[in-house]
């Protein structure tokens, strides 16, 4: 089983129709999208987080249920749902977050389940590790569960929500020392470490603690480092409609592949050979590519990937 913890929000995407901006709501949030992708790929998955009782919060919950995601570890509150305004412009899309005292940022330690299923993976990441008190709560969960189960992390860096880059880098290094798998995008690394190549950073991260470091390279595919082994795969060529959610779909594909391979511990992760690792990356890249063929964070179902 997989347990995915973090934010759940509504992306309000703008469409320019006859000079007017019309905003359309889309369920989102990086961990939310990963849980969605896992459920659609037929992997037993539960979401851990806090939803609003407002209409958007209920929309978020219903969308997960339709994608076969277990909600046993969720709680609700009267606060509003976090909103992300996505507006097109001359320089590309711009983002504005409305996330002060919203429901998913107010997860507290007392909201955490006393225990998670034995052998289940735990996945964390994105802005849920930035906004308090949820950030502190999930860090406590990370501290509690490290060594008891495999843990994966996707920082999914959002520079506009990081007021102090140095402090963020220091905290990120702390997370890296507690997880078994980290997936990061080339764009994230370019912002964090300008001038350094992704392979150079991946090697440095591997020394901090993770067993497996994966870097997505957009249209160029992905690379992975595992206990001295290095693998690179190409991305399938598709007609791209929208890249939103592609990284989360890749993460879901990677975790789904590990689940199906029976990898439920750090030692099992370290035992993967080059061929197995290549197959895992290729599958994850396929899931991400299919997501890019349609608008929004809309990961494929298991039947589509077949």
Automatic annotation (TrEMBL):
InterPro entries hit by this protein? Carboh/pur_kinase_PfkB_CS, PfkB_Carbo_kinase, PfkB_dom, Ribokinase-like
Keywords of the record: ATP-binding, Kinase, Nucleotide-binding, Transferase
Enumerate the spans annotated as Carbohydrate kinase PfkB domain. Answer: 3-301
EC number from the UniProt entry? 2.7.1.4
Query: Has the keyword Kinase been applied to this entry?
Result: yes
Q: Which family does it belong to?
A: Belongs to the carbohydrate kinase PfkB family.
- Protein name (record): Fructokinase
Query: Which source organism?
Result: Meiothermus luteus
Gene this chain is encoded by: scrK
């Amino acid at each position: 089983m997989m347990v995915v913890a973090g934010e759940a929000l509504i992306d309000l995407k703008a469409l320019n129709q006859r000079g007017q901006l019309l905003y359309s709501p889309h369920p989102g949030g990086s961990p939310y999208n990963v849980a969605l992708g896992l459920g659609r790929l037929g992997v037993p998955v539960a979401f851990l987080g806090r939803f609003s009782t407002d209409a958007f919060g209920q929309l978020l919950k219903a969308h997960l249920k339709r994608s076969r995601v277990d909600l046993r570890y969720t709680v609700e509150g009267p606060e509003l749902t976090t909103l992300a305004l996505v507006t097109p412009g001359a320089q590309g899309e711009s983002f504005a977050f409305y996330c002060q005292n919203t429901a998913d940022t107010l997860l507290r330690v007392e909201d955490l389940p006393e225990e998670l299923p034995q052998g289940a993976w735990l996945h964390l990441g994105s802005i849920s590790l930035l906004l308090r008190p949820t950030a502190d709560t999930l860090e406590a969960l990370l501290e509690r569960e490290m060594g008891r189960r495999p843990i994966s992390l996707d920082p999914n860096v959002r520079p506009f929500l990081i007021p102090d880059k140095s402090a963020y880098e220091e905290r990120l290094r702390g997370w890296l020392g507690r997880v078994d798998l980290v997936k990061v995008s080339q764009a994230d690394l370019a912002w964090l470490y300008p001038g350094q190549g992704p392979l150079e950073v991946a090697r440095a991260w591997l020394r901090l603690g993770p067993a497996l470091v994966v870097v997505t390279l957009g249209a160029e595919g992905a690379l992975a480092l595992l206990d001295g082994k290095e693998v690179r795969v190409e991305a399938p060529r598709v007609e791209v409609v929208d890249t939103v959610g592609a990284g989360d779909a890749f993460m879901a594909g990677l975790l789904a592949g590990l689940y199906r391979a029976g990898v439920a511990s750090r030692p099992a992760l370290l035992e993967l050979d080059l061929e197995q690792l290549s197959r895992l990356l290729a599958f994850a890249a396929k899931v991400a590519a299919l997501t890019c063929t349609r608008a929004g964070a809309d990961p494929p179902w298991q039947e589509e990937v077949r």
